[in-house]
Design goal:
The protein folds into two domains: about 1-30 and about 145-205, Orthogonal Bundle (Endonuclease Iii, domain 2); about 35-140, Endonuclease III, domain 1 (Orthogonal Bundle), CATH 1.10.340. The two termini are about 25 Å apart. The longest helix is centred in the N-terminal third of the chain and has 27 residues, at about 1-30. By secondary structure, the protein is an all-alpha fold. It has helices at about 1-30, 35-50, 55-70, 75-80, 90-95, 105-110, 115-125, 130-140, 150-160, 170-185, 190-205. It has eleven helices and no strands. Helices cover about 70% and strands about 0% of the residues.
């Protein structure tokens, strides 16, 4: 039951709380970063779909903004392949296409509500579903979203909070997210913060 999960997180707080706070502070610092940093983070989130955060971080550290923004599609695909990325052709195409939103910080922060920002991202950015859009927003300082990746879903299913279908529709995502948010409220933390605790429970790591 969710009570068991809440107790696990409570026991983790004194163990990794400082590391989690440091990571959250990094996310919140994005409000002072320019669109180059936001665009790089958007490309990172495109790369994590059906891949891993570790791989996305590796590529982001090598290519940085200039690589994401300036390499042509063929060169970008070649670099992704060299770095060990599986879906190098399709993700290179998505990244080249998303350059039309290189002012992504201005776009995302123009909405009154972060939920509207997420809907815009899902509708307009190829390669972003609700999970990836939520990931991008959390990493740029919007902490109100659940990033329902396979690690988080397995924990929630194991705690008998929800059953995980093979394919998650928009309505199913939002339904599971509500349950995630209820747990975060019980723990008096933001969903984006709870995600880091659950990720640690699953992987032993605190990434982004």
């Amino acid at each position: 039951m969710s009570n068991d999960l809440v107790e696990k997180i409570e026991r983790l707080k004194p163990v990794i709380g400082d590391q989690v706070k440091k990571r959250i502070d990094e996310f919140l610092s994005f409000k002072d970063k320019d669109s180059r940093e936001w665009f790089s983070e958007l490309c990172f989130c495109i790369l994590t779909a059906n891949s891993s955060a570790e791989m996305g971080i590796k590529i982001q550290n090598v290519l940085k903004f200039n690589g994401f923004a300036m390499l042509n599609e063929k060169e970008l695909a070649r670099k992704l392949k060299e770095l060990g990325y599986r879906f190098y052709n399709v993700r290179a195409r998505y990244i080249v296409e998303v350059r039309k939103f290189i002012n992504i910080k201005e776009i995302v922060t123009s909405f009154k509500e972060p939920w509207e920002s997420r809907e815009w991202l899902v509708e307009n950015v190829k390669g972003l579903g609700y999970k990836e859009a939520s990931h991008f927003l959390r990493n740029t300082g919007f902490l109100d979203f659940a990033i329902l990746d396979r690690h988080i879903l397995r924990i929630m299913e194991g705690a008998r909070i929800t059953r995980v279908p093979k394919n998650i529709s928009r309505n199913m995502y939002l339904e599971i997210e509500k349950k995630f948010i209820e747990i975060s409220e019980r723990l008096e933390m933001k969903p984006g913060e709870l995600d880091l605790y659950l990720w640690y429970l699953s992987t032993g790591k605190i990434l982004k």
